[in-house]
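Appendix B, record 7
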Amino acid sequence: MTKNIYQFSCEDASGQRVELSSYKGKALLIVNTASKCGFTPQYEGLENLQREYDSEKFSVLAFPCNQFGAQEPGSNEEITEFCNLNYQNTFPIFAKIEVNGENAHPLFSFLTEEKKGLLGTGNIKWNFTKFLINQEGEPVGRYAPSTTPEKIKADIEKLINS
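Structure tokens (predicted):
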């Protein structure tokens, strides 16, 4: 079994299928997001990372999810519009998914199996859990919702400068 994300495809917010293998060679920060969460202002920090690092070497990938406190009630179109209006996001926003349970997207089932959370649990506990992916598509880090994007910069720089 391959231990990277390139085996998965996802639907973007406009309904187009995206093969994650199209990101080969890039470091990635995969985040489950929500528009009505106390951590929503992290969109700004995520966008700052996107703009700071060369898009040939790095990208944020946002996956909206409504499983935590129903904090992402909007449609894919409404979510994209919210992000564009409030944060001028330039990174890809994917279609709304589930990250836990029997309907969890296979990508997130893989990520939570590869990178356990606090106390060795796999399940994502809240919005804005972040997974750092190296250029070979392997998960190399998992960060709690309270970990701001700015606190992940050094880990991203190690990857893209290696």
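Remarks on this record: Strands lie at 9-11, 17-19, 27-33, 58-64, 130-133, 139-143. Helices lie at 42-52, 76-87, 106-114, 153-160.
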